[in-house]
Structure formats: structure tokens, C-alpha cells
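Invent a record, attention on C-alpha cells:
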Amino acid sequence: MLRERLQGFHGRPNVLLPPDIKQRILGPNSSYLSHIVQQTNAKIIIRGQGSGHIELESGQELFEPMFIQINHRTLEGLVEAKQLVDSLLDTVFTLCSSI
């Protein structure tokens, strides 16, 4: 399991997270993350505060900051999915910082 956290706004500590950051990452109709999942066969979940992901054990969101969890059955697939997610985050955060 690999966790890529959105802490420090992906290496950009001076940029504030907009309230709609999850929607910006998902894209229209979840198309951005769906594309990565289709291309890599990875399982990608946005978890943590503000994610809307309810944990089975607690019945609520995790208390830690929002993060993206990437799972894949092969190391190569995991690396490919991580690279695509990193690229997506770079794009989203660049657009957010220019607003």
C-alpha cells in the first residue's frame, strides 16, 4: 500500500487548499481518477478529512489530513499509477495556486 498525502499541498506549503480540492482532483464526473484507474488497473481511494470516505471500522472519516491511497498488485503498476497521480496533482495544484 502506498499513501501519497496532500499535506503541504504536494510540496507547496504556501498554497491554501481550496474547499473543493477533492472535486478538482476527481475531475468532471470523476474522469481524471477514472482514467488513471482504467489505464493502470490500480485501486485509488481519497481518504482522510474532507474526503467523504467513511471507514468501515469507525463509521466516519479518518481524522488525519486528506490523502490518496494507491493499491496495485504489481510494483510496476503501482509506480505507473503513482506517476500519473503525481502528474495530476501537479496540474491541479498549479491551477489552484494561480487563482
